[in-house]
Amino acid sequence: MRSHAEAILNLADEARAAVAAITAQNAGSVTIGALETIASVKLPKWLSAFQSHHPGIDLKLKVAGSGGLLQKLEANEIEVAFCFDQQGVGERFAKRTIAAEPLVLIAPPGRGLASTKLDLSAIASARFVVTEVGCVYRQLFDKAFAEASIAAPRLAAEVDSIGTIGRLVAEGAGLGLVPRFAVVEAIDRGEISEMSWPNATQAALLVMIWRRRRVQPPALKLLLAAASDAFGPARSADAHPRRARPFPS
Questions:
Q1: Neighbouring C-beta atoms of residue 104, cutoff 10 Å
Q2: Residue among 101, 100, 43, 99 at smallest CA distance from 231
């Protein structure tokens, strides 16, 4: 009788421990950093869904440029950064690609170039609105012309946001190279035209970067896993469920 009672008590202790572990996983806070374009377009719907499933986890979002995000990770001001792929993040950080975002050339509405098969030499004489040096789109832009041994186009303006590029292009300032997701609504409204980017690199890789630790905070682990599932490749209806992927500590 006594051993039976002890077994029941042990089961009760295990149940309480399991509940405590689940509660700990679904509590805490995560400070996220992201590029402005990603923060305003890609993250809101997903973060809202994540918080509805994990109401005990407080989320904070900080916006910065690519260099600023790495600095904030270094200073422990953020726990994970969502940005486009960049080399040399260092061994202290882990990085995972979660999406490939198509790149497009955008032009003012009604421009004849939109229906023309383009190559880099055909657009080299155009003026471009570009992001600042150091931004991934600017790197792709400069690299494409350099590798093709074509003089880079003249710049109409150098700006600090994709939204500004879209507005300037719509007003006729020049062409722009941007991730399609950032301008899809303007394209649908007819405010700008889109063209294929005539280069082998057709997409920018969206990554998340976080600091390696021996033990990651439970709330951060949940968010990293949720991001991989949310932004990963779409699956067919009859595909087998994916197993959760381990995250580097």
A1: 22
A2: 99
Place of tokens 């004489």: 125
Question: Would you list the DSSP string of 163-198?
Answer: HHHHHHHHTTS-BEEEEGGGTHHHHHTTSSEEEE--
> Which residues have a Cβ under 8 Å from the Cβ of 49 and sit 6 or more positions away?
230
- Pinpoint the alpha helices (H) of 112-183: 120-123, 136-147, 162-170
Question: Strand, helix or coil at 244?
Answer: coil
Query: By C-alpha distance, which of 141, 198, 196, 199 is closest to 165?
Result: 141
Closest residue by Cα to residue 138 from 120, 121, 162: 162
User: pTM of the predicted model, to two decimals?
Assistant: 0.75
Q: At 16, which amino acid appears?
A: R
Query: Which of these, 231, 228, 205, lies nearest to 103 by C-alpha position?
Result: 205
Q: CA-CA-CA-CA torsion for 146, 147, 150, 155, nearest 10 degrees?
A: -40
- Mean pLDDT of the 104-115 span: 75
Structural domains of the chain sorted by starting position, each given as residue range(s) with its CATH number in brackets: 2-99+204-231 (3.40.190.10), 101-203 (3.40.190.10)
- pLDDT tens-place string over residues 111-166: 655 445 678 998 999 999 999 887 888 888 999 999 999 999 999 999 988 889 99
- Three-state DSSP class for residue 202: coil
In this prediction, residue 232 has a pLDDT band, given cuts at 50, 70 and 90, of low
DSSP state letter for 114:
G
pLDDT in tens, 239-248: 333 444 455 5
Whose tokens are 């300037």? That residue is 168
